[in-house]
Amino acid sequence: MAARKFFVGGNWKMNGDKATIDGIVGFLNASNGNPNVDIVVAPPAPYLASVKAALQHNIKVAAQNAYKVPKGAFTGEISPAMLKDLGLEWVILGHSERRHVFGETDALIADKTVHALESGLQVVFCIGEKLEEREAGKTKEVNFRQLQAIVDKKVDFSKIVIAYEPVWAIGTGKTASPEQAQEVHAWIREFLKEKVSDAVSASTRVIYGGSVTADNAAELAKKPDIDGFLVGGASLKPDFVKIINARN
Ligand code: PEP
User: PANTHER family of this UniProt entry (predicted)?
Assistant: First the structure.
């Protein structure tokens, strides 16, 4: 079984303008990427095409969301077909802000995942518990429920990266400790082993997200079941390059 290639995603959320995005593209290109790392950045939708055109080809571009059908009367939405048309390869689905700010359900996110995969995109599939769920001892239950929604659809896990992003750690400056993150990543791998297969459990990349910075990335990256990061705030700054290289 091939080793799981380190994966670092940058989720720019609803941030940036032409000038600041030029700056981000500039420091990313200057870094030359890293042949041992899959690097995928997710600009806001209006900038997808220009960022794709400006970035070196070894740095890929993802959308932050996409709807569950190819086209039609769905004002405000974008489709996987459109992303493919732009030459994109990735989409982030199930981000906690989509789940908890915009009320996306497990069922909708599963439908979107199936459609994105059918359309030829790869998916960064985000899961994670809220603080009150963790405090109520429901961390495993919540993450497993969110994963079960796509297991039930018999998705092709070779096209999926799972991002474990505890909601209490996203944008809060409260990173999960390497031990806390490793514990959940190991549970996710056990879940995949039981519900899907040994091969999928061993080969699927499970990345961590939640206040990752250049200062904490190296320690997190040492854990055996942490295969990379999904980075929000810190992906807008030149230090993102240190996170990309955290394992080297
Ligand atoms: C995210 O948006 O996926 C995220 C993890 O954000 P931050 O790194 O800012 O916590």
Answer: TRIOSEPHOSPHATE ISOMERASE (PTHR21139)
